[in-house]
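<tokenise_the_fold>
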Amino acid sequence: MENQTSTRQLLETYYKGFAAKANWESTLADDFEYTGCDMTNTTPVVGKQAYIEIIKRFSQRFEAMRVKQMVIEDDKASVIGNYDFQFPNGAKINGNVSENWTVKNGKLQSLTLYFDTLTFMENMKP
């Protein structure tokens, strides 16, 4: 049960900051692993700073985000995040993203995302 509490606390801190686009970085492990920008390439991006750079670009695409559902089991969690996207082509889309986490040594260790990459990339075109 203690793992669930610390996992929940980490995720609540992460998502509170993530939605505000500030103060979420401290929850990540230095060797954080991220998979999700391109589902045809499942090799993770490794490193806290690399993920921060990805999120700097991604955060320009969403106006708001909410956690719709969070399921935690020990050091793993599955979250459904709901995003209001604003794209360079003017399209505004609301979409869900499946966000699957692992925790290790009191930090978020990895994240794998599943979302509609085709619609996302099509709307990134000016």
User: Anything to note?
Assistant: The chain is about 30% helix and 45% strand. The chain has a mean pLDDT of 90.
